[in-house]
Amino acid sequence: MTDSRDTKRVVERYLEGLRTPGADRVDAKVLPDALAAMHKAKLQTAPCSRFTWRMVMTSRTGGLIAAALVVAVVSFAVLDSFTQPAWALADALEALKDYRAVHIVGAFPGGTAEAWIRGNDAGTRSTDVVVRGSHGAITWTKEGSTYHYEPGQNTVYFEDALTVGMTPWLGRELLEMLGTADTAKVIHGKDPATGRDRVTLMCSLTDVHGPQSWIMNLSRLRRGLFGFSTSNTLAHYPQGPQSPRSYPQKQIPIR
Amino acid sequence: MTGGCRSLVVLLMIEDRILVWRFNRGEPAALCRIHEKYREGLLKVAAALLNDRSGVEDVLHDVFVDFAQTTGRFRLQGSLKGYLSICVANRARDRNRTTRRRESVGLNEIPAPSADVAGPEQAALSHELAAKLDGAMAELPDEQREVIVLHVQSKLPFREIARLREISINTAMSRYRYDLDKLRSILNGELEL
């Protein structure tokens, strides 16, 4: 054994080969107790909110505030109904349901990126991806590998794995999740430039790179087609996205 | 890949966030899916960190029961896989401490690694080497063994290990290097690949 890479390989094989109990046995031991604990925790949470509601309604001040809020919400709903367009987020979700391929335009610090992505048959994740950056970089997938062309270096990097794509697929579940995030805001209206119906979804997410804020526009182009664009607002990300991890492992110089 | 393209991808790689969201809404199917998705990897982490491997299932059981109790208020920072892996590592460390206490009262000897550990991959390694690695891993202090297992088995980046363990990234990396050096010297002393 000569260097740390050899040692790492041996350790990897050793860890891979560790025998573990069968899935059925583990499921039978873990899941019933975990599900029971989850159910119990849910029951403990529910009385708490009922208690809060009772507190509000038994307090005179709390009752008045609650009544005022109800009036405000009803007024807003009535007034807003005059201006709300027919196309809402629910329609956007419905429109996305049957799509297996999307074209995404994203605006980021230092440029824009366009992506063409095709989903698998089950509609759970993407298979084929092409991402083109505004400065000429192109990333694509082919037969289970990922390639990236960097024009400044005149080099194609590749990795023997799919490292770009959508998991989960852009669809109802993803948008519903984003739409119900604590920080999400949905605005219905018309695109002033094109006059088309538009739904704007603003949300923030925290991932391993830190908090990020996003704006997504879903617009109905015509029956059966929709457009999707996204931009990073950089609200919590003043330095811009961090440099990519050292994923390109091999290089093919282009002559 | 450019920062912009990567951000686009990062936004979309959020399956775990959907699972956590559904888990917090109290959907049992989400908990089952999380368990199914990470079960195998977590079992291997536990098997690699425990001195007594008969407790692998118990560790996973305790981790998932504790996790299930956080439904409705669980807030994910970083990756779910990293979070669960660290929970397993913590449980394994507690269990190792208890085992050591019992041994110091009783047998007063280091537990021999279980003979029933050879899987198909490990069979590819020589039996002698696998046994040597068992011993070498058991000799590493818990906090050092954790870094190598979390990085190699769970594929956690050093940055995330450092954040979850509240140590500096340099400490995490130096522990990893130290582990590899120590394992190499142990293996080289006895056996050549």
What is the terminal separation of chain A in angstroms?
36 Å
Strand content of chain B: under 5%
The main β sheet of chain B shows up as: none
How much helical structure, as a percent, in the residues of chain A? 25-40%
| Binned strand content of chain A | 25-35%
CATH architecture verdict of chain B: Up-down Bundle
Chain oligomer state? heterodimer
Summarize the structure in words.
The complex is a heterodimer of chains A (255) and B (193). Chain A has 255 residues and is of the alpha+beta class. In chain A, 35% of the residues lie in helices and 33% in strands. Chain A has helices at residues 4-16, 23-58, 60-83, 89-96, 172-179, and strands at 101-108, 111-119, 126-133, 138-142, 145-150, 155-159, 185-190, 197-207, 210-222, 225-232, 250-253. In chain A, helix 2 crosses helix 3 (60-83). The model of chain A is unreliable at 47-87, 222-226 and 233-255 (pLDDT under 50). Chain B is built from 10 helices and no strands. In chain B, helix 2 (15-24) crosses helix 3, helix 4 (56-68) packs across helix 5 (80-105) and helix 8 crosses helix 10. At the A-B interface, helix 1, helix 2, strand 1, strand 2 and helix 5 of A face helix 1, helix 2, helix 3, helix 4 and helix 6 of B.
Produce the secondary structure layout:
The complex is a heterodimer of chains A (255) and B (193).
Chain A: H1 4-16, H2 23-58, H3 60-83, H4 89-96, E1 101-108, E2 111-119, E3 126-133, E4 138-142, E5 145-150, E6 155-159, H5 172-179, E7 185-190, E8 197-207, E9 210-222, E10 225-232, E11 250-253
Parallel strand pairs in A: 1-10
Antiparallel strand pairs in A: 1-2, 2-3, 3-4, 4-5, 5-6, 6-11, 7-8, 8-9, 9-10
Chain B: H1 3-12, H2 15-24, H3 28-49, H4 56-68, H5 80-105, H6 120-124, H7 127-139, H8 142-152, H9 158-165, H10 169-190
Helix pairs in contact in B: 2-3, 3-4, 3-5, 4-5, 7-10, 8-10, 9-10
